[in-house]
Design goal:
4 strands; 136 residues; two-stranded antiparallel sheet; 2 domains; Arc Repressor Mutant, subunit A; two-stranded parallel sheet
Amino acid sequence: MTRSLHIDLLRSFASVAETGALSRAASRIGRSQAALSMQMKRLEDLVGQPLVTRTGRGAVPTVQGERFLIHACRILSSHDEALAEFSDGSLSGTLHFGCPDDDAQAFLSNLLRGFAQHHPAAAIEVICGSTPRLQA
């Protein structure tokens, strides 16, 4: 029987590893925490290794999970590049990013205007502030 790594499972695992918590990862990918937990269990069953350890403060990748994350990120990157290369190039959804105040005043309006012209279906949410505030 051939086993396959499903992109949704890899993306969910990468989100858990990045956020450090099932609840934050679930919110980010638009799933319930219970659904995400089931996905992690399914992925662990598929690879035959525990990938995430749940702690009182969240979830952290195991040693095997850290190793697997390298492969997952590589696969996700290749997947996303292939889709971008062969798609019509239009983006949809919401882009969130932070920008230091000085940079925002210097070039943000032209950048956003150009982006909106090329991707009218995409929404942009920008937070401007000091670097320490943005890092938080």
